[in-house]
Amino acid sequence: MLAASAYFSHHEFSERYKSPIHLLAKKPSTTAAKVAPLLAGSGALGELQSKQILAAYGIPVTRDFLCTSAAEAAKIAKKEFGGAAVVMKIASAEILHKSDLDLVRVGVTGPAEVRKTFDDLMAVAARRAKGAQVDGVLVCEMAEPGIECVVGVSRDELFGPVVMFGLGGVFVEVFGDVSFRVPPFDRDEAVRMIEQTVGSALLHGQRGSKPVKISALVDVLMKVQKLAMDNAATISELDINPLVVRPNGVVALDALIVREPITAE
User: Within a 13 Å sphere around the CA of 129, how many CA atoms are in the beta-carbon half?
Assistant: First the structure.
């Protein structure tokens, strides 16, 4: 009797939460068609390409420029950022955890330091990521500080795309303080998704700090689920980490998209 009850409960649950992979529109959305060339093939995309896809869906990202020489990096830093401090990081789809390998430098200023940092990053990559294809170095804007969050998507065999939210740092790495939702969901559900995490209290302002713009964070969750649904048959993993949330908005500092197309059986 218990076995039969469990079977029917599972059947009812499965019927209610059909995988959206089987409900894909016959014609892709305009945005999906626009990013299709970037999603062709398989494997991980580099940070720059991953951010281009996020930007196509209206998700704010930092201004980044791929440079293939120290001279080009110095020129870009001066032309695009007026000599202000920049972030520099190695550009490679085969190096997924750049910070762990000392391949990210923050607060780089001046032409001489930019050129030196370019050469240093390329040398470190050659030593610590032997064999990895390196496209160059990204010269990126220094974003305003804020609360670091993580937004992700993973492909579940039963449910299809599943969206994840959590606060960055120890909240996700140590405590596993994250929440999940299966698309489609509305803005009210996105708010509940945020509030479900223990760390969400920090978003409302603590000890004199200003509350962040929750509506901007909700916008990102809604756009991420659209991205995930549009490309459910292609994207197996998406990771925005960190997504910095501030009183005046949000911006993605880093992103990773992994392509694993579903083939018809």
Answer: 23
Per-residue pLDDT of the chain (265 residues; tens, 9 = 90+): 444 444 344 445 445 445 555 555 456 689 999 999 999 999 999 999 999 999 999 999 999 999 999 999 999 999 999 999 999 999 999 998 899 999 999 999 999 999 999 999 999 999 999 999 999 999 999 999 999 999 999 999 999 999 999 998 777 877 789 999 999 999 999 999 999 999 999 999 987 789 999 999 999 999 999 999 999 999 999 999 999 999 999 999 999 999 998 875 5
Integer Cα distance of 68 and 63 in angstroms: 17
Dihedral, CA of residue 43, residue 218, residue 200 and residue 179, to nearest 10: -50
d(CA 24, CA 39): 16
Domain range annotation of the chain: 30-60+145-259, 64-141
State how far the Cα of 8 lies from the Cα of 33, in Å rounded to an integer. Answer: 40
Q: Which residue has tokens 């992103």?
A: 255
* Amino acid type, 262: I
* CATH T-level assignment (fold) for domain 30-60+145-259: D-amino Acid Aminotransferase; Chain A, domain 1 (3.30.470)
